[in-house]
Specification:
alpha+beta; Rossmann fold; OB fold (Dihydrolipoamide Acetyltransferase, E2P); 5-stranded parallel beta sheet; 38 strands; nuclease
Length: 977
């Protein structure tokens, strides 16, 4: 029952009464919804709202954002735009475009629907509202007397919300017609892609248009036409290309998951075979294997999918055939829907042979359960970067729209079919596209052109492509974010008087007398950690780790905090750093630069001679760093016997204790894993890449690492004690035994007597130490690299998500861990700082870090951002190694990491690169034979010599840089010598 009442205050209240039945009893529930008449329209053309503006609780007047002279349509009429939910969800990139969509009204109900259906798009929409140049406003239609509508009997929520959006557009028209101060009327256009709702709106006298019709009505509509998201039927011309199985209904998938016949998980495409993928689910020890076009059923890498198990006679081993997107449909016509799969005869025979082999080997342990995708719960679609396939462009066609293929830079993704009038001029360009749909009768997904980044191989285009591909936010910080920084900017300094009435300043501990120094990579500008040590009279040592006090400047619920939370982490490329927080914070206000006073968050221990913790204290402090060392400078100072000053002695104490801390970790089972880390040297004048070298680690690297680890562990214990439900922590799960099955089988065959034990991290560490080849000192490193790839990924989590035994960090062999030591570049550390400040009573912890649901959202985002940053950093190194090798072809030592029946994968340690050498680059493809039991590929090379190569073999390879003919991406090409 709904009752409407007018209150004495002038507000209107809607009373909703309903009865809830629980445990046999009835309860009457009454909820009140308040309405008001003074919510402004935010238009500078409205005399009524300008006259009646009221300040908010902080005394600020609302900003009238919508211009009194808005943009004109093709016919000359000025207009505002009201958007519905579907337009926002389908065309957010078009709304963000600088060529259209200004003076836009977003009804509150639309904002709420978008938030419920796609949080990332909701965040982008909120950013548009905050951006002053685009002039987007949120109109609170759900709290306005004249725009709030009640739900009718038997009306669906969606239909009610559609009516609410229509009413909002109608009210704006009526309101502006009555109160507008402009001579020419301002038209309000509802942009709506729901055909039925559009008809209803037009019947009510509203100017409602589809997105396509609205774009066509703009003066620059011809330029924008290519940016309109495609509808499912846009590309249908002839007979269907393929008949993918239709997805199961929501009710069927929910029932299947509940009764255990269907399973949900994230789909991952195989790196080496595009017709194969896997889904990891809790119900099975091994990932479920998805093989073949129909079973993959339009799943994209990263999609959250529902799968159905196939019968046991369809189970099989992972493929031993390399199959890339370029091998499939290479001759497809983008405009012709009658093509069949075009896999080469050789590859088709190999795939068929694998299927036969699976039936022969039924019951063997190698077989994995197989499944098929029956529904997509959540798409991973984002912006993708690629180039238009020249073979799909008709050069005879004029500027009319034509259908063509875009080959993506990510080789595990299918090509995308788009329509564009600019096909010929976009050839050779690195372009951004968005995926709109993948109908069941279309062999390829359908999308639309977003923008061009520039010519392929130009540095700016390739760098921006890399950032977009890994979903890294790289745009400059907004004015709202920068306004959160101290007004003094560069001239800010620690107040001289600590007793100036500021209660928090009084709580800071003055540590300016401590001999603090920092040890970082060369030319480090964002110094977020520093250390000190001194002997105590009782024979123990005082050791302090001091971390930049970022949270003094980054306050919760500000634009600066929201931006940091959204970016999640800084991203380090070869030639550029993409900051999580504005540079002024990272390189000036927070950076623990030498010779200046800085605010810090300090962890101070009393350690005995064996580096055991006797006591630990946490405090907000003021420090003054005495020196900023590079790792090499600190190492030289330690080793220089003539240096015996107090600062040098304190560094020697730190080194001595760090060695004992490391040994204790190793004794407890901490892992020493390897990855091929390289450094690309850039020319200081031209910024061109010069040479590549493998990073050298000094004792001082380990010194800093050990005390940062100790600080992180100590802080984790403290914040978990204080906030057992929401502590920001980091865990590393133990790997399932199945993860190491393949590696152990390879070791059994290729290196008899060697194996990896995973009963515990200690057993794993010890078994890795035993994997030594006396004839090859690099072999142990190779095994550690391969073992790293068998491990689970570490992840951030809120402490309520797991029981305490699952907090364990397997790689570090500790029971609890967090990240606290790099708040300039990681948002996790910002949260840990706030929680630690709350735990020691320095300040009240903000409610968002005490709310389990909000903390879940935070950790989900920072896990994603952390992974993306890692991949972006690696891709940057790969790109610049390719640039270095452009004119520097050389022969290097490599190791076979994987073998297939049509190629091998080789790692080149000197450059830290891994490359695939396909059979056609090795020799005569028809002479090849693959021995799956021995992991060996035999073939006749181009000189007619019979050769056999297998996993772990040391080989000589010619290393050079080439441009991929298909994707346009520069890569290092390896050729067996």
């Amino acid at each position: 029952m709904v009752e409407k009442r007018k209150l004495a205050s002038g507000l209107t209240t809607i009373q909703k009464t309903f009865v809830r039945s629980r445990n046999g009893g009835c309860m009457k529930i009454v909820r009140e919804h308040y309405l008001r008449s003074d919510i402004p329209c935010y238009s500078q053309a409205c005399n009524h709202c300008i006259t009646n503006l009221k300040p908010d609780a902080q005394g600020n007047l609302p900003l009238l954002v919508l211009l009194d002279l808005p943009l004109k349509l093709k016919n000359g009429g000025q207009h505002y735009v009201v958007v519905d939910t579907n337009v926002v969800l389908q065309a957010i990139d078009l709304l963000e475009n600088t060529e259209c969509f200004y003076d836009v009204v977003v009804p509150q109900i639309v904002l709420e629907e978008v938030k419920n259906r796609s949080f990332p798009i909701y965040q982008r929409l909120r950013a548009l509202v905050k951006a002053a140049d685009k002039r987007f406003v949120v109109f609170h239609n759900e709290f306005h007397e004249e725009t709030y509508i009640t739900r009718e009997k038997d009306e669906s929520i969606n239909d009610r919300n559609d009516r609410a959006v229509n009413r909002c557009a109608q009210w704006y028209n009526e309101h502006l017609a009555k109160y507008s101060s402009t001579k020419n009327p301002i038209k309000v256009i509802l942009v709506c892609n729901d055909r039925n709702n559009r008809k209803r709106a037009i019947a009510e006298g509203i100017d409602a248009r589809s997105l396509e019709d609205y774009i066509e009505s703009l003066p620059n509509g011809d330029m924008l036409r290519d940016l309109i998201p495609t509808e499912n039927e846009s590309f249908e011309k002839n007979a269907a290309e393929i008949a993918y199985p239709e997805y199961y209904s929501t009710s069927r998938t929910m029932a299947g998951i509940k009764n255990g016949t269907l399973y949900q998980g994230v789909f991952n495409t195989s790196t080496y075979n595009i017709l194969e993928g896997s889904v990891l689910t809790p119900a099975f020890k091994k990932p479920l294997l998805i093989v073949g076009t129909k079973n993959l059923n339009r799943a994209f890498n990263g999609d959250l999918v529902i799968v159905e198990l196939l019968p046991k006679d369809k189970w099989r081993e992972p493929s031993t055939t390399i199959l890339e997107e370029s091998s499939i449909g290479a001759n497809d016509n983008a405009d012709d829907n009658s093509q069949e799969d075009l896999v080469s005869d050789k590859e088709r025979r190999m795939l068929a042979l694998e299927a036969v082999k699976a039936t022969i080997h039924q019951g063997e342990k190698k077989l994995q359960p197989t499944a098929r995708v029956v529904s997509i719960t959540r798409r991973s679609w984002r912006f993708y970067v690629g180039q238009i396939a020249s073979s799909s462009v008709d050069n005879e066609t004029s500027n009319a729209s034509q259908t063509c293929f875009v080959i993506l830079m990510d080789k595990v993704l299918p090509k995308i079919r788009i329509k564009t009038r600019k096909a010929k001029e976009l050839l050779g360009q690195r372009i951004v596209v968005s995926v709109d749909a993948w109908p069941s009768n279309s062999k390829y997904p359908q999308g639309h052109f977003v923008r061009s980044l520039g010519a392929i191989e130009t540095e700016g285009a390739e760098r921006e492509a890399l950032l977009i591909e890994h979903d890294v936010e790289y745009r400059p910080f907004s004015k709202a974010v920068l306004d959160c920084l101290p007004k003094e900017g560069e001239n800010w300094k620690v107040p001289e008087n600590l007793d100036n009435g500021d209660e928090q300043l009084k709580k800071r501990v003055d540590l300016r007398d401590k001999l603090v120094c920092s040890i970082d990579p060369p030319n480090c500008q964002d110094i977020d950690d520093a250390l000190h040590a001194k002997p105590l009279p009782n024979g123990h040592y005082e050791v302090g780790v001091h971390i930049a006090d970022v949270t003094h400047f980054v306050k919760p619920n500000t634009a600066l905090d929201s931006e940091g939370a959204s970016r999640g982490t800084s991203v380090y490329l070869v030639d550029k750093r993409i900051d999580m927080l504005p540079m002024l914070l990272g390189t000036n206000l927070c950076s623990l630069n030498p010779y200046v006073e800085r605010f810090a968050f300090s962890v101070i221990w009393e350690l005995d001679e064996n580096a055991e913790i006797v006591d630990v204290k946490f405090m907000k402090s003021i420090i003054k760093s005495r020196e900023a060392f590079s790792y090499e400078q600190a190492q030289l100072r330690i080793e220089d016997g003539s240096q015996n000053d107090e600062l040098t002695q304190s560094i020697r104490i730190l080194l001595k204790l760090s060695k004992k801390l490391k040994q204790k970790r190793m004794d407890a089972g901490a892992l020493n894993l390897s990855s091929p880390e390289v450094k690309v040297h850039m020319d200081s004048e031209t910024s061109d890449p010069g040479e590549v070298e493998v990073k050298k680690l000094l004792e001082t690297n380990s010194l800093v690492e050990e005390f940062m680890l100790l600080a992180n562990i100590s802080v984790a214990r403290k914040i978990y004690d204080a906030y057992p439900q929401t502590a920001m922590l980091r865990r590393h799960a133990a790997p399932p035994s199945t993860n190491f099955e393949a590696l152990n089988e390879i070791l059994r065959v290729r290196k008899p007597g060697m194996s990896i034990s995973i009963e515990s991290s200690k057993a794993l560490a010890d078994s890795l130490d035993r994997c030594v080849d006396p004839n090859d000192e690099y072999f142990n490193t190779l095994i550690r690299i391969m073992s790293t790839r068998c491990m689970m990924a570490a992840e951030y989590f809120s402490s309520s998500s797991y029981g305490y035994p699952d907090f364990r960090h397997y790689g570090l062999a500790v029971d609890i861990y967090t990240h606290f030591t790099s708040p300039i570049r990681r948002y996790c550390d910002v949260v840990a700082h706030r929680q630690l400040a709350g735990a020691i009573g320095y300040e009240m912890l903000d409610s968002q870090h005490r709310d389990k649901h909000k903390m879940e959202l935070i950790v989900r985002n920072i896990n994603k951002r952390h992974r993306n940053a890692q991949f972006a950093g690696r891709a940057s190194i790969e790109y610049y190694v390719g640039q270095v090798m452009k004119n520097n072809e050389s022969t290097q030592e490599g190791y076979v990491m994987k073998s297939f029946n049509n190629g091998i994968v080789v790692l080149v340690p000197k450059f830290g690169v891994e490359g695939m050498i396909k059979l056609e680059m090795l020799g005569d493809a028809n002479s090849a034979a693959y021995d799956e039991e021995k992991y060996e590929l035999s073939f006749t090379d181009f000189k007619g010599v019979s050769r056999t190569v297998g996993i772990f073999d040391k080989v000589q390879v010619a290393v050079k840089s080439v441009q991929d003919e298909v994707s346009g991406k520069r890569k290092v090409q390896l050729v067996l010598v």
